[in-house]
């Protein structure tokens, strides 16, 4: 299946999930995430505000904040680029309807500020290859970055094998409600 058709079929599955199922599975994914060394030791974390049926991150953000970890959310700069932005109480909706902190302290590429990036995805394989929405936002930000990369997904988003394109940045591990694929620290 080509990338575009694979995206469509995976998004259809994700969007068909009931609210109760998404809630229960997101909770289980958070429990699996909490056990990982890379999560426990991170001091500055890039995480996303979930939309469109992505694995929920509310619990993760609350846990990080409560532990005094610096939390950054993507601030969309263009159709292909974001910069992590330190979370504040002031938020506004970006072009996708997702909350972003404004104004904020940014963590540009090569700033070395982020030690863990928690990434959403449309699909993943067990080796950590990631399929996004098709704009390469995460590939662009993460290329050349040495931070730890964790993908969050429902088991239904795991596929046998994804193409590892030249610009694609793989995750160190992928966490679902059922398993942890790869090494999370
Ligand atoms: P996604 O990762 O969102 O599924 P793709 O991997 O298909 O999307 O990437 C979308 C486009 O962005 C592709 O044309 C890809 O080559 C381009 N791209 C991704 N990362 C970079 C990068 N670091 N530099 C330049 N182009 C990039
Ligand atoms: Mg990609």
What is the radius of gyration computed over CA atoms, rounded to a whole number of angstroms? Answer: 15 Å
- Percent helix, as a range, is 25-40%
Shape: globular
Task: Give the N-to-C terminal Cα separation.
Answer: 33 Å
Quick recap of the structure?
The chain is of the alpha/beta class. It is built from 5 helices and 11 strands.
Can you characterise this structure?
With 185 residues, this protein is an alpha/beta fold. It has one domain: Rossmann fold. Helix content is 26%, strand content 22%. It contains 5 helices and 11 strands, in the order H-H-H-E-H-E-E-E-E-E-E-E-H-E-E-E. The strands form 3 sheets. Strands 3-2-1-6-9-10-11 form a 7-stranded mixed beta sheet. Strands 4-5 form a two-stranded antiparallel sheet. Strand 2 and strand 3 form a beta hairpin. The longest helix is centred in the N-terminal third of the chain and has 16 residues. It starts with a helix and ends with a strand. The model has no long low-confidence stretch (mean pLDDT 96). The site of adenosine-5'-diphosphate (ADP) has 12 residues, from helix 5.
Which tags fit this structure?
185 residues; alpha/beta; Rossmann fold; 7-stranded mixed beta sheet; two-stranded antiparallel sheet; 26% helix; globular; binds adenosine-5'-diphosphate; binds magnesium ion
